[in-house]
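Shape is hard to put into words, and the shape of a protein is harder than most. The fold becomes a row of whole numbers, each drawn from a learned catalogue of backbone shapes. The outcome of that step, for a single protein, is printed below.
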Amino acid sequence: MIKAIVTDIEGTTSSLSFVKEVLFPYARQHLPAFVTAHQHDAAVKALLDDARQTVAADLDLPALINQFIEWIDTDQKITALKSLQGLIWEAGYQQGDFKGHIYDDATRCLKAWHQQSLALYVYSSGSVQAQKLLFGFSEAGDLTPLFSGYFDTHIGGKREVASYQNIIDALQLPAEQIVFLSDIREELDAARQAGLQTVWLVRDQAIDPQAEHQQVNDFDAIQL
């Protein structure tokens, strides 16, 4: 019996275009001014120090800003960058510059699963803060009450088996009672190796009956 569902965000609950065409450009555009204005804030200062440790160099502020921009342009999953993006997006959400995109089918099924007492979790390369903002300021309203917890790269990379073993330990459930939803095969491969059940979201693509994981075009087609 399934007791918990762990879902990815990009390409799964939310469109890739929202992340790539709205969130990433917004963070890139506003990052220099945001970092300059908040460089002495405790949270931002800690992230700047983390970035210096990542590159193993004592970079000054302009060099750090350039490093963050380079990481954005090359789509690096650097924890300090993801956390900084989350802070920038928080300001954007609160100012009403945009709302989080969630597919209607995802919203509908997440609400139904929650009503069925299934525990719902998010696992994304974006920071936990960014995850909460996307669901909290979504086009469908505040969806954060649906979720029991969130995981990001602090628990490990999404293509690493150990990350899913850590999630199993955190949920304190048998692996076979947990389903992981994603649009990335390598993530699903790692989750399956850890013992999780898997569902592959292939939005706008034809279903491949020979695929290594159960494929669906939307949440409505998921059979638990």
The radius of gyration is 18 Å. Helices lie at 16-38, 42-55, 61-73, 79-94, 104-115, 128-136, 161-171, 185-193. Residues 4-15+100-221 form a domain with the Rossmann fold fold (CATH 3.40.50.1000).
